[in-house]
């Protein structure tokens, strides 16, 4: 009933409709069309919330490189900035300043000649960053060829077959011939001699990966640059290098400071990373930095004035949230070099602990140990004929673990492996739980006569 003040004026009925606690009205809601009318916000929330419970637990997803844990303070800052449009630098000048600070911090971390004047920007992830770096390589090559009066219609890009799919997209979308170095024997990534062998006057660059997604290994950037130096000194083409450091560019500076892979090498023109991988930010931010303004052709930078002030923009996307950029700056302030070192070292410690104990479990053999990226790959030994990696992946899903099982690419498609990615928030305790679950599963799988699952059951699409 509506409550009324004794003797007070009469007014409209103020009863508030409230859904019962344990049941809701019986309504039909279409799944593939927009409903004709509104429903209660709590009802809409519950429908979406309940279906999302069927998703996997992100913390137990050992396939993803993407951050699944941040501090509450970072989450609060992101909530404050979720309505800020990163492109609108005139309206949100302090957010824009923090973005530039992040670029300078990364340029310094990667040994740029003049970090405060380095060219760079945030992106929606390392895929967009790779596209921008690839475009800069292509345009610089075209400019040189035009100036020399030479044809510039057949650009190519040299890379290992293990590159992330974004490079395949770049080659397709921007009409660049991809030249892939296949895996061979126990070499699962790009090697220096193999890279140089594919370079010619039409090569816009070589992509070297600091941390292969297939097995977590670093590609030998310094060796690749040295081989390209020798090629050029002998009268061959002058080929720049882009380092795809989607993961490793936020690992190596802290854990492998003596490894030379960055702008200390004059041939390295640009570097990208994923802020939302080992940059420790929730999904939605990547970074790309060029060694100097000569590495980024000016014609690729657009200037717009219709947001309230003239500003440069170089991106494939336009509007995007500023929250992840702010979270990145928060992490840089909060952790500093020592904090990042401790976080990444703990990830590596857990990865090598896990890999060592998995190797001790008879049926498995390691391809990598997790001592570069905190990522390792392993396979079922050839003499074990009762189950395969796809059986293992399917069995672990029953306990909530998501471990990818997949085959390697060209020349090693015979190799069926599993991979474990250790991220911040995956503890030694969880590692022990995974090991025990894996042990029990293997005992069960040994009772079956032959492998029961194939790639469709436990597969992973790179």
UniProtKB/TrEMBL annotation:
Keyword hit for Lyase: yes
Enzyme class: lyase
Cofactor: pyridoxal 5'-phosphate
Positions in coiled-coil regions: none
Origin superkingdom: Bacteria
EC number of the protein: 4.1.1.15
Protein name stated in the entry: Glutamate decarboxylase
Species of provenance: Yinghuangia aomiensis
């Amino acid at each position: 009933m509506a409550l009324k003040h004794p003797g007070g004026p009469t007014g409209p009925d103020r009863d508030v409709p409230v859904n019962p606690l344990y049941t809701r009205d019986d309504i039909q809601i279409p799944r593939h069309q927009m409903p004709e009318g509104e429903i209660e916000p709590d009802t809409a929330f519950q429908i979406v919330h309940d279906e999302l419970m069927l998703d996997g637990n992100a913390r137990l997803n050992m396939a993803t490189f993407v951050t699944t844990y941040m501090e509450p303070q970072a989450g609060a800052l992101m909530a404050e900035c979720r309505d800020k449009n990163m492109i609108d630098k005139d309206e949100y000048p302090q957010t824009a300043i923090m973005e530039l600070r992040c670029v300078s911090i990364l340029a310094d971390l990667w040994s740029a000649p003049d970090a405060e004047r380095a060219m760079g920007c945030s992106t929606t992830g390392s895929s967009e960053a790779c596209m921008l770096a690839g475009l800069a390589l292509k345009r610089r090559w075209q400019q040189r060829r035009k100036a020399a009066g030479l044809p510039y219609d057949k650009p190519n890009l040299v890379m290992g077959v293990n590159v992330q799919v974004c490079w395949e997209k770049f080659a397709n979308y921007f009409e660049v011939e991809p030249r892939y170095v296949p895996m061979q024997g126990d070499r699962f990534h790009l090697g220096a001699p193999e890279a140089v062998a594919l370079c010619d006057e039409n090569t816009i660059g070589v992509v070297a990966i600091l941390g292969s997604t297939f097995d977590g290994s670093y590609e030998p950037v310094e060796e690749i640059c040295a081989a390209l130096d020798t090629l050029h000194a002998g009268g061959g083409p002058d080929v720049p290098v882009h380092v795809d450091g989607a993961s490793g560019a936020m690992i190596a500076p802290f854990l492998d400071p003596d490894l030379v892979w960055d702008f200390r090498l004059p041939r390295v023109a640009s570097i990208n990373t994923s802020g939302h991988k080992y940059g420790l930010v929730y999904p939605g931010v990547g970074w790309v930095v060029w060694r100097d303004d000569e590495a980024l052709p000016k014609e690729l930078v657009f200037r717009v004035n219709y947001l309230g002030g003239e500003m440069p923009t170089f991106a494939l996307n336009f509007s995007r949230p500023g929250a992840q950029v702010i979270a990145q700056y928060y992490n840089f302030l909060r952790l500093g070099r020592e904090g990042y070192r401790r976080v990444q070292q703990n990830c590596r410690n857990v990865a090598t602990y896990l890999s060592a104990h998995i190797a001790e479990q008879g049926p498995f053999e390691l391809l990598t140990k997790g001592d570069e990226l905190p990522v390792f790959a392993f396979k079922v030994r050839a003499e074990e004929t009762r189950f395969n990696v796809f059986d293992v992946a399917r069995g672990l899903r029953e306990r909530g673990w998501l471990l990818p099982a997949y085959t390697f690419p060209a020349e090693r498609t015979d190799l069926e492996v599993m991979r474990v990615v250790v991220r911040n928030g995956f503890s030694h305790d969880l590692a022990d739980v995974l090991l025990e679950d894996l042990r029990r599963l293997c005992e069960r799988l040994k009772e079956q006569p032959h492998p029961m699952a194939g790639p469709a059951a436990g597969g992973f699409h790179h």
